[in-house]
Design goal:
Order of helices and strands: HHEHHEHEHEHHEHHEHHE
Radius of gyration: 19 Å
Distance between the termini: 60 Å
Number of strands: 7
Structural class: alpha/beta
Helix content: 40-55%
């Protein structure tokens, strides 16, 4: 019947892409890495982010929606700041959309260890109002309350912008939750407190990979993953999620090479 034919066709396409990926992955990785280093050499950056977020040692809270967001979207940031700062990750769900939340919790713990962080630097939320899903509307006030409860003495908070990079509604809800927390508690936050958001780009820039260097390097907050294969290796920790299209993502996406952040201006609003 039509439903069976559709499933069969989908499986054949998935198998075809999987086979194509197996044949091309190593050449693609090599080409992108070479491009990265050539462009980095030709177009040097003068945005030394260490002057802004670098000294003195700061406590940074990264707020994400799902296990694997930290690798797929924030890896260049993490790779650079973990070396010199105290970094904590607040993950607003256990990624239970497919009923494998416990597996994803274990994978996230492995990822934290892979990054060289202590497991105490990771907080994962499993709240009934914040369940993973493209069609699940998250409660923004709940997010704001949880971010505030886990802020502790962080002097920098980093999260998605209002487009969520991929447009995922959970990513966008996390942005609005952080924004709500900032608005509600700005009077108690110290003057040096910073709130930063990961810049979402258009679809062309998103998949330029290392070729986005000239535009990315103009950003005020610019982070570079100096070893692109590290992102691929880190994503392996999320084994249950590392299907062929995510393998392609961490090769072709600019977010595997560069992160550009902008400031969330919460103090000037009434």
């Amino acid at each position: 019947n039509a439903e069976y034919m559709g499933v069969t066709s989908s499986k054949k396409m998935s198998d075809w892409f999987g086979s194509l990926w197996e044949n091309l992955r190593y050449p693609l990785v090599i080409v992108n890495i070479l491009l990265f280093f050539v462009i980095k050499k030709v177009v040097p950056t003068n945005n030394d982010v260490s002057q802004e977020v670098g000294q003195p040692r700061k406590k940074i809270l990264l707020v994400i929606a799902h296990p694997d967001d930290e690798v797929m979207f924030f890896y260049p940031l993490l790779k650079q700041v973990i070396k010199v700062h105290d970094v904590r990750i607040l993950c607003m769900s256990i990624g239970n959309a497919d009923g494998i939340g416990e597996t994803r919790k274990k994978e996230m713990t492995q990822l934290v260890a892979h990054l060289g962080l202590d497991v105490s630097n990771l907080t994962m939320i499993d709240h009934r109002l914040l369940q993973d899903g493209m069609h699940v509307q998250w409660d923004v006030q709940t997010i704001a309350d949880l971010v505030h409860a886990n802020l502790a003495d962080a002097s920098v908070v980093v999260t998605f912008d209002n487009q969520g990079v991929s447009g995922h509604p959970n990513h966008i809800a996390v942005h609005h939750g952080v924004r709500m927390m900032l608005d509600q508690h700005k009077a108690e936050l110290p003057a040096e407190f910073k709130a930063l958001q990961l810049e979402s780009t258009n679809i062309i820039r998103k998949y330029l990979g290392p070729l986005d260097f000239p535009l990315s390097s103009l950003a005020s907050y610019f982070f570079v993953n100096s070893s692109p294969p590290d992102c691929y290796r880190a994503m392996r920790c999320h084994h249950s999620q590392f299907v062929w299209y995510r393998r392609l993502f961490v090769i072709f996406s600019r977010y595997a090479y560069y992160n550009t952040l902008t400031t969330i201006d919460f103090r000037t609003q009434a």
